[in-house]
Amino acid sequence: MRRVELRHLRYFVAVAEAGSMVAGARAIGIVQPALSRQIRELEEAVGTPLLVRRSTGISLTAAGASFLRDATRLLQELQDSHERALRSAEGQLGELRLGVLPNYFPLPVVSTLLKAFRTTCPDVMLSIAPMLSADQAAAIMRGELDGGIMAWRQDVAPHLSGVRLRRDRFVLAMLASPGKRFRAPRRLTELADAPFIWFDPLRSAAHHRFLLEQCRRVGFTPHIAQVGSDIPTLIGLVAAGMGYAFVPESTAPTCPRTVRLVALDELADRFDVEFVYDGRTDAPVVRQFLTALRATVNA
């Protein structure tokens, strides 16, 4: 028993739309006897006549009219599938799963990057989750994220690839009560007995080590009174009068008016904030995101 093949569908639709074997053969570029043979094969495979042949042309049987609707739909679906496959291969379709450090998501550099990516890839769905750096790195390695905007890549996942978005540093966050005189310390030793709100070292050991090393170099040991799980939490606790905290300088635009950020020379070391991804994979949507990132950073 013959099988219906793709060429049969194309030939049949061409004949039905042209209205005759001769015109159909001309439209698809084969000789008329070969086209007639292909149509007979199709009718044998279907098991019933699809065309009524006359000297003036052809007409469709009831079975032929039904088959034409299905054949046209199938050919269109195949064409659509082909186009979707090509667009997916170019990174123009699909999903991009990103992790973002919570305190960096509101920054202009991130929003500008996401806008640029949306402009070039409007049909890619963005799935964004606020996550700490170590959690992002683990999710990328498990294949649960395509990439992430994070810090401490060299510490938590040196085998992953990264493109720098910006360099940042830590500054002192302290309460600035309205109507009260504000006095900013110049040295960390002035805060020897002050309560500090510290980033949970179990959530980010690299963050913890980076800050402690700078404190150690100037002989300062912070008095840790509270622990927070992310930077927005630390800033909120400072605003509540719970103590001092070290937060990235880039958080300045999102800090409440009651929290003042003070840059200290003793906290001058900088760290990279990067888009991190697995360079061993070749995901088209990641390639498109990298293109948008480089255009944004170099603009």
TrEMBL record:
Domain of life: Bacteria
Family (UniProt): Belongs to the LysR transcriptional regulatory family.
Any single GO CC term annotated in Swiss-Prot or TrEMBL for this entry: protein-DNA complex
SUPFAM superfamilies referenced in this protein's UniProt entry, alphabetically: Periplasmic binding protein-like II, Winged helix' DNA-binding domain
Keywords tagged on the record: DNA-binding, Transcription, Transcription regulation
Domain HTH lysR-type: 4-61
Lineage, highest ranks first: Bacteria, Pseudomonadati, Myxococcota, Myxococcia, Myxococcales
Descriptive protein name: LysR family transcriptional regulator
Domain Rhodanese residue range list: 145-161
PROSITE patterns xrefs: HTH_LYSR, RHODANESE_3
Presence of keyword Lyase: no
GO molecular function: DNA binding; DNA-binding transcription factor activity
CDD domains reported in the protein's UniProt record: PBP2_LTTR_aromatics_like (cd08414)
UniProt-listed InterPro entries: LysR_HTH_N (IPR000847), LysR_subst-bd (IPR005119), Rhodanese-like_dom (IPR001763), WH-like_DNA-bd_sf (IPR036388), WH_DNA-bd_sf (IPR036390)
